[in-house]
Amino acid sequence: MSTSANSDRIERQILLAAPRGKVWHALVDAESFGDWFGVNLKGQRFVVGETTHGHITYPGYEHLVCEMQIERIEPEQRFAYRWHPYAVDPAVDYTQEPTTLVEFALEEHADGILLRLVESGFDRVPLARRAEAYRMNSGGWDEQMRNIQNYLARH
């Protein structure tokens, strides 16, 4: 896995030893995505222009709901959504804040599929929580890259 970052964006990439269709399914099938990402999305679908939401399944965070506004689904190429980064205080209404854009892109590689992740738009997050949102999501994406790799190895 490799990482790259500046103040506005987080970038990760990982080479996955799995066929493109299998990686794609793990990304755009909402239930599969929820399984590796740690969100209960049972019975839901990702549809461009719609918002999907579910309770986080990580221990200690189950009281939080993850909301994703689906932006783009380009079959077996690109999947993108918007969300409020590190929106973990249930007493705060994040709906008035700008969202960040999360984009996954698939690329053929001799040894599998290269999954590229970019989350951008942190410079628009309110200054009072920008650095913490960036720091937490940066570490979170490291974990999520391992999560999808482990999920694909098991399924």
From TrEMBL:
Top-rank taxon: Bacteria
Pfam families in the cross-refs: AHSA1 (PF08327)
Transmembrane segments: none
CDD domains reported in the protein's UniProt record: SRPBCC_CalC_Aha1-like_5
SUPFAM superfamilies: Bet v1-like (SSF55961)
InterPro entries found in the cross-reference section: ASHA1/2-like_C (IPR013538), START-like_dom_sf (IPR023393)
Annotated ranges, domain Activator of Hsp90 ATPase homologue 1/2-like C-terminal: 18-152
Homology family: Belongs to the AHA1 family.
Name recorded for this polypeptide: SRPBCC family protein
Organism: Rhodanobacter humi
Lineage: Bacteria, Pseudomonadati, Pseudomonadota, Gammaproteobacteria, Lysobacterales
